[in-house]
Amino acid sequence: MPDTIRSEYPPLPQSVLELLDAVRAEDQMTTQKAVLLLDQCVIPAAELASWARFGHPEADSYGQATLHSGDSLELQVLSWQPGDMSAIHDIGDSSWGALKFLGLAEYARFEVREGLLCTLERRNCEAGSVLAQDRGQIQQIGNKGAAPMISLHINGTGRGQQAATTQRRVFDLDEGRIQVTTGGAFFLLPQEQVSSNAVAVQGDFPTWLRHNAELLRRMRVISLGGGRSGLAVREERLLREFNSVDTWQALRQELLIRLPKQDPDYQLSYITSLGQELASTTSLFAELVEAGRFEPRHEVLMLIGEIVSMLEDEDYIGRIAGA
């Protein structure tokens, strides 16, 4: 099947053609093989410049362009402006896949644990990093650096099956639903891009916190660009939740009561991710205060300070580890 490239694109670079040929030559592709092939290939970012979409619409969480779609595999370039962040999502119907960052990126993985979506890890990835994309994997990708960045994604299904990234699940932890889409892993997906959203989902506190912080950031980008109307009511509700004493008291109770009952691996990932997400959220507070959009309550700041102190207290960490 020929490459499905829109007419405004130039011919594919030789380096990309060689990658596609290497994938097609495999009798049975796996994620491990995809990681190896993507790691071995040398595709300079400059050769993909024609597919970069840094001027993507504000409503899109990142830019995307397809280099190839066919032969039960897809090869895409995603473009990330500083501050761009995908929604939490899986890789759809893909049986295997891998991605390569061609700039500094942030990457997070998640799992469902006791009915809650939980953060396994969130880390920075250097340019050239290659990551596996296993079936069912739940992830989030973003650019927290100061320069635009692109990433290269290859995904596939069994031979003769449909396109690889159809039926992608996007996790909306604000409204508590899983949206199924054939489009991008964007926040605030329009209804026409959602084929199903009947499944309920909740996140643990660190995962919910970061999701809603990034949701607010995307809302601000859309609003400043003069985009979608009707976001103000939802934005105000999110700000009230962040500025509610009840929100932060619930977190303190979770640290004191629920977390000590969990296994040590979960405790460690929870405390690590909570520290990261508190830093991201307080940074968002500063952005909103500077923009005149937010005035955090003194009681809320005091509670956040108390929670940060708990996370830095070796006695507290020792107590929950020994619970």
Overall residue-averaged pLDDT value: 92
Proportion of strand residues: 15-25%
Please count the beta strands (DSSP E, at least 2 residues each).
Answer: 13
| Computed CA radius of gyration, to the nearest angstrom | 21 Å
Instruction: Catalogue the unreliable spans.
Output: 1-6
Secondary-structure arrangement, i.e. CATH architecture of the largest domain = Sandwich
Please, how many domains?
2
CATH fold-level name of the largest domain: Jelly Rolls
| Order of strands, widest sheet | 12-11-10-3-8-5-6-13
The N- and C-terminal alpha carbons lie at a distance of 59 Å
The helix/strand class is: alpha+beta
The secondary-structure element order is HHEEEEEEEEEEEEEHHHHHH
Question: So what's the overall shape?
Answer: globular
How many alpha or pi helices? 8
Proportion in helices: 25-40%
Sketch the major β-sheet. Answer: 8 strands, mixed
CATH superfamily of the largest domain: Jelly Rolls
What is the CATH C level class of the largest domain, in words? Answer: Mainly Beta
Walk me through this protein's architecture:
The protein has 323 residues and is of the alpha+beta class. The protein folds into two domains: 14-200, Jelly Rolls, CATH 2.60.120.10; 204-321, no CATH class. The protein has helices spanning 14-24, 31-40, 205-224, 232-242, 245-258, 264-290, 298-312, 314-321, and strands at residues 63-70, 73-80, 88-90, 96-101, 105-113, 116-125, 130-132, 138-142, 149-156, 168-172, 177-181, 194-200, 202-203. The strands form two sheets. The chain has an eight-stranded mixed beta sheet. A five-stranded antiparallel beta sheet has the order 1-2-9-4-7. A hairpin with a 4-residue loop joins strand 10 and strand 11 (177-181). Helix 3 (205-224) packs parallel to helix 6. The radius of gyration is 21 Å and the shape is globular.
